[in-house]
Amino acid sequence: MRCTWKVFYLSLLAAWFGLLAAELWLQLARRLAWPEVERFLHEELEPLDSSAITDREEIWAERYVRYRPGAELELPKPAGAQHLRINAQGFRGREVAREKPPGSLRVACIGGSTTTQGPEDDATYPARLEAKLRERFPGRALEVLNLGVSATWSNYWLQGDREDQLFALAPDVVVQYDGINDLAFVHLHQYAEAHPWRRWLGRSLLVDRWLPPDPRDFDTLFEGTLRNQVRLARQLSQRGVGYVGGTFATPDPARLSPVHARALDHDVQRLWGRALGLDAYAPFHALVLHYDALVEARMQERGIAVVPVHRELTDPALFSDVCHLTPRGIEALAGAFLPAVAAQLEAR
Predict the structure, then answer these.
(1) Which one, 73, 78, 133, 295, has least CB within 10 Å?
(2) What's 302's domain CATH number?
């Protein structure tokens, strides 16, 4: 009996040291790979990133709430300076009349930094969508407004008098590309508070790979975001305004190069998964995919137009981080929304 217990304890000890050695090896491999990752970030991804321009202190009247009307900004970047203008209505882009011109069509795009981002005001996805719609409807007066506000959540236009502000612009169709900020800055925090052990264990690379959070555990949390989107779609419908929602796109892990995968791991550690202590991109991507499946199912059940953006934008070359887009990605996002928005406009 004593020999049996001795073998058992020695086996546990060996397993413990084996796990410790595996963890140390993963941590060491990450440190050794960092110079190459840093070069990739600064030389490959940063020149293509146009999201930082919408997060600069100079353009905010109230940070992450509203932009300062009339603000202008030039941001030097490796690929060339980026320029931003906030119009008199407090949104990115050219000046627009508060009242819609008679006989014209108006589309309003809402969301966070993935809506406002772009190296120039005419290179955001709403601006590119406008260009594509004008090609689709030549000679028709129409405009697409970029009402995105960086870092906002899906309930932004349901708070206070913002809904009235949205209707005052008289859009014919509203396009919502949202969800990532809810996940990263709301749901992961809520999950971490309910599972404090997960935050601590999440610092382990082994845990991230062998025991990632179960996406189904987030269903109740994701429900809040889904309710916001469905509620807005219904309220718009009651006012005779069309609505087009979208799932959320992230790079396909299977198509990442090793250095790109490590770069996205770093991005998750630094910002997107910090609340939960996530150390790798793969479990974060799984959470977004599960959210996308719920969004698509919920919208289809209720007859609400939804674009499966997550299936159309998967190429890592379209992304500058886990969610923000390169110029090619911005063009692709506009193209993904084009058919559904055009169909809504044709119906009018």
Answers:
(1) 78
(2) 3.40.50.1110
